Amino acid sequence: MGESEHWRGELDTTVTNERAENGAFTIFYKKDNLEDIKEYKININEGRIIRKESDLTSKSIDFPITRTKGSQVSRNEDQTIVIEWTDMNGNNFEENLILREK
């Protein structure tokens, strides 16, 4: 889990057969004013996963993980997340989180 002023993130994965991995990154907006976020961009691990959208419609944002072979997300000790967003007044913000598997 990792946290910043406005955001909280979790990583929950399960590795089976030492090769397959299932789980999710979940990012939570900690404030109540969803309508204040006009657009946002979430960048996980320097661009391995990027989501850019308009209007935050839920306090939680899921990024499913399904891997059948190769490197596992959970093997990387630190997961870096950068969240950039613009509010309704056009002000830009950026916060960083470091996640560890829960």
Describe it for me?
This protein has 102 residues and is mainly β. It has one domain (2-99): Immunoglobulin-like. It is built from no helices and eight strands. It has a four-stranded antiparallel β-sheet, with no helix packed on it. It has a four-stranded antiparallel β-sheet with strand order 5-4-7-8, with no helix packed on it. A hairpin with a 4-residue loop joins strand 7 (79-87) and strand 8 (92-99). The mean pLDDT is 87.
Query: Which structural class matches the secondary elements?
Result: mainly beta
Low-pLDDT residue spans = none
Strand order of the largest sheet: 1-2-3-6
Tally of distinct domains: 1
SSE layout and pairings?
Blueprint: E1 2-3, E2 7-16, E3 20-29, E4 37-44, E5 49-54, E6 60-67, E7 79-87, E8 92-99
Antiparallel strand pairs: 1-2, 2-3, 3-6, 4-5, 4-7, 7-8
Could you write a compact summary of the structure shown?
This protein has 102 residues and is mostly beta strands. It has strands at residues 2-3, 7-16, 20-29, 37-44, 49-54, 60-67, 79-87, 92-99.
Quick tags:
mainly beta, single chain, 60% strand, 8 strands, Immunoglobulin-like, four-stranded antiparallel sheet, 102 residues
